[in-house]
């Protein structure tokens, strides 16, 4: 005895009935968490930016006074420029290194897996621990520069702006490149092998295959990685605090560190809140511009037509 499916009910229609979008209720826990720990603090910081508060007592409403002070503050304007410079240098140095290491680590040889595990060790360390480590290594009195004066001169890499910025860029490169290399490694493993097989049949070598196949397939991954670098670069703080403390003078005082100085050294939480709002708006705006200009928001599959 056989049974027939109801008329008008196709196999695809049955599958559509079985698989559907989850209800709104499933999103409530995540939405509640995001609202309490992200949106609400941002709203409170925005409100606090229009007040004067030392951390004690009640905030006093002062209107746009804090914002006027920011516009007339040369250190604030300088810190924005430094933040952009450090962020740009971080993207320029970390992106090619992370991409090449990630593509290399995507190979199947056992030695690549071992070396990748060793290289990813910095991911296990906090930014504070990494900063303390490199501060000791680069100490002008007892560190490597003091023992190699023929290469580092007087050995005080933190004594002028150019070398201090170079140290910050290098330490960020050492710490965060493994994270982005891991992202590229996962994306490179997802590239269909048939593309490389076809390229090999056509006589393409490794370099040609990388630029013709691997690089285009990593386009969306690169955009994601760069956005993470930009947001991280604009909001970095502990590395500057431990390595240079904003010095020499204010030559490495980036915006996030300046916010810390105003809040926890100057006890001017109203002005610090205004700086925090500027950081959030700048990071969000730059990320949205990158997404829109790159076409990443369309999220077209790179495997279309394969």
Q: If you had to describe this structure to a student in words, what would you say it looks like?
A:
The protein is mainly α. It has a single domain, classed as Orthogonal Bundle (MetI-like fold), CATH 1.10.3720.10. The chain is 68% helix and 1% strand. It has helices at 11-18, 28-48, 65-71, 74-105, 110-119, 127-137, 144-147, 149-152, 161-189, 193-201, 206-217, 219-235, 238-243, 255-265, 269-294, and strands at 51-52, 60-61. The chain has a two-stranded antiparallel ribbon with strand order 1-2. A hairpin with a 7-residue loop joins strand 1 (51-52) and strand 2. Helix 4 packs parallel to helix 9 (161-189) and helix 14 packs antiparallel against helix 15. Mean pLDDT is 87; it is low at 11-15.
Top keywords for this entry?
306 residues; mainly alpha; MetI-like fold; 15 helices; 2 strands; 68% helix
CATH superfamily: MetI-like
- The unreliable regions are 11-15
Strand content: under 5%
Which structural class is indicated by helix and strand composition? mainly alpha
The CATH architecture: Orthogonal Bundle
What is the helical fraction, as a range of percent? 55-70%
Distance between the termini: 44 Å
For the largest beta sheet, what order do the strands appear in spatially? 1-2
Rg: 25 Å
In round numbers, the mean pLDDT is 87
Whole-number tally of structural domains: 1
- Biggest sheet, open or closed, and with what strands and sense? 2 strands, antiparallel
Total helical segments:
15
CATH class term:
Mainly Alpha
Order of helices and strands: HHEEHHHHHHHHHHHHH
Question: CATH fold name, please?
Answer: MetI-like fold
Shape: globular
Number of strands: 2
């Amino acid at each position: 005895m056989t049974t027939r499916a109801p008329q008008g009910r196709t196999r695809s229609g049955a599958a559509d009935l079985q698989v559907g979008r989850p209800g709104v209720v499933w999103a409530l826990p995540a939405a509640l968490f995001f609202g309490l720990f992200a949106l609400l603090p941002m709203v409170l910081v925005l409100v606090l930016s229009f007040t004067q508060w030392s951390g004690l007592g009640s905030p006093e409403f002062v209107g746009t006074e804090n914002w006027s002070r920011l516009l007339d503050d040369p250190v604030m304007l300088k810190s924005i420029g430094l933040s952009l410079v450090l962020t740009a240098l971080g993207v320029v140095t970390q992106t090619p290194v992370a991409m090449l290491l990630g593509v290399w680590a995507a190979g199947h040889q056992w030695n690549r897996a071992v070396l990748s595990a060793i290289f990813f060790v910095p991911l296990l360390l906090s930014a504070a621990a990494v900063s303390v480590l490199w501060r000791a290594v680069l100490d002008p009195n007892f560190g490597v520069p003091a023992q190699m004066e023929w290469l580092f001169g007087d050995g005080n890499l933190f004594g002028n702006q150019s070398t201090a910025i170079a140290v910050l860029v290098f330490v960020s490169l050492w710490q965060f490149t493994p994270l982005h290399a891991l992202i590229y490694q996962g994306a490179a493993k997802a590239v269909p092998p048939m593309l490389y097989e076809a390229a090999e049949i056509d006589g393409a070598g490794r370099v040609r295959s990388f630029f013709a196949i691997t690089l285009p397939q990593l386009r969306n991954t690169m955009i994601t990685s760069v956005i993470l670098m930009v947001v991280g670069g604009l909001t970095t703080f502990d590395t500057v605090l431990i390595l240079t403390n904003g010095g020499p003078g204010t030559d490495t005082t980036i915006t996030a560190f300046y916010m810390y100085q105003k809040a926890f050294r100057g006890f001017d939480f109203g002005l610090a809140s205004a700086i925090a709002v500027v950081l959030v708006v700048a990071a969000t705006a730059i990320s949205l511009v990158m997404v829109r200009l790159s076409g990443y928001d369309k999220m077209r599959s790179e495997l279309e037509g394969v």
